[in-house]
Design brief:
This protein is α+β, with helices and mostly antiparallel strands and 297 residues long. The chain folds into three domains: 4-51, Uridine Diphospho-n-acetylenolpyruvylglucosamine Reductase, domain 2; 58-175, Uridine Diphospho-n-acetylenolpyruvylglucosamine Reductase, domain 3 (2-Layer Sandwich); 198-288, Enolase-like, domain 1 (2-Layer Sandwich), CATH 3.30.390.50. It is built from twelve helices and 14 strands. The chain has helices at 13-22, 35-40, 77-82, 84-89, 91-97, 103-108, 111-116, 123-130, 173-176, 230-236, 243-255, 267-288, and strands at residues 4-9, 27-29, 47-51, 61-63, 69-71, 134-139, 142-147, 152-154, 157-158, 165-171, 180-186, 197-205, 212-220, 227-228. A hairpin with a 5-residue loop joins β4 and β5 (69-71). The longest helix is centred in the last third of the chain and has 22 residues, at 267-288.
Length: 297
């Protein structure tokens, strides 16, 4: 049984933020795959809901004139995985979306909800962090832009102020042009399971494909929030591609991640797996860019 006080259906973004002003404790709902479970379990008993599911301006995946890729926050994981622009420019996001739950969850769950629930294990959160996305947040009479690296504050807490909703996910051209990436989720089961940990790596190679010109790596369930491996990135940026370089990257990343022990896995096991994921994702990203590792494409 779903025990909530009231539900209001927003007709537009402006209407949604006006409803939030009138009902400051109300919860935004789109797909509902997270919120409805919490209501059923009693954690959000007798809450008020504001539905944004029918706001068409929050849908769609488009490219602006300046080549910024824009993703509507209520796009489902299924739509993201099948979208032509996603496949062309940031296919790794589609790969990550396909690891979320089962088909029913992917059909109803939204990328905005996956970001805004603040879970460190969220499958698309680490991938978006590795793409250096910028989040557009809209309040009553204003819009502000927050880099995703500044969005996650601590476990379950994000940089959304009272009265704001997420209205767009932006990936600028310089964040995706000439980059290729790879995402891997480690979990106890191959489907319909929460990550024990996950890793997403994007790489841009030198023109001769022999060196790492740039790299961005992000991890889920490796700390209280999704984390970037900045020290590991800096350790290999500009260097020639070798197996030793890949090991250096993985070792440096593991030393700067903060996994904890839980019923899913111990801290020590997570660190071991994260090192292996670092190697796998970096290797695959290099190969997708046409790079050569010790003579093997």
């Amino acid at each position: 049984m779903f025990n909530f006080e009231a539900i209001y259906e927003a007709a537009s973004v402006n209407h949604a933020v006006e409803l939030l002003k009138e009902h400051p404790n109300a919860i935004i709902i789109a797909g509902g795959s997270d919120v409805l479970i919490k209501i059923r379990e009693g954690r959000l008993s007798e809450c008020e809901l504001i539905s944004i599911q029918t706001i068409n301006e929050l849908r769609g995946i488009t490219i602006k004139e300046d080549a910024t890729l824009c993703i509507g926050p209520i796009e489902s994981f299924s739509h993201i995985a099948e979208n032509t622009l996603i496949k062309q420019y940031i296919s790794v996001l589609g790969d990550a979306a396909l690891t979320v739950g089962g088909p029913q969850i992917r059909n109803i769950g939204t990328i905005g909800g996956n970001i805004c629930n603040g879970a460190t294990s969220a499958d698309t959160a680490s991938t978006l962090l590795a793409w250096d996305v910028v989040l557009e947040l809209t309040g009553l009479g204003y819009v502000r832009y927050v880099p995703i690296s500044e969005f996650y504050i601590h476990a379950g807490k994000t940089n959304i102020k009272n009265g704001e909703i997420l209205t767009s996910i932006l990936i600028h051209k310089n964040s995706y042009e000439n980059y290729k990436g790879f995402y891997y989720k480690y979990s106890a089961r191959n489907a319909m399971d929460i990550s024990v940990c996950n890793c997403s790596v994007n790489v841009r190679l030198s023109s001769d494909k022999k060196a790492v010109e740039d790299v961005r790596a992000a991890y889920g369930a490796a700390g209280p929030v999704p984390l970037r491996a900045y020290k590991a990135e800096n350790a290999i940026r500009g260097k020639k591609i070798t197996l030793e370089l890949i090991d250096e990257f993985a070792d440096t990343a593991a030393k700067n991640l903060e996994p904890r022990s839980s019923y899913r896995a111990s801290r020590e096991f997570r660190i071991h797996i994260l090192k292996e994921l670092s190697k796998k994702c970096l290797k695959e990203s290099i190969c997708r860019c046409g790079g050569i590792i010790n003579g093997t494409v």
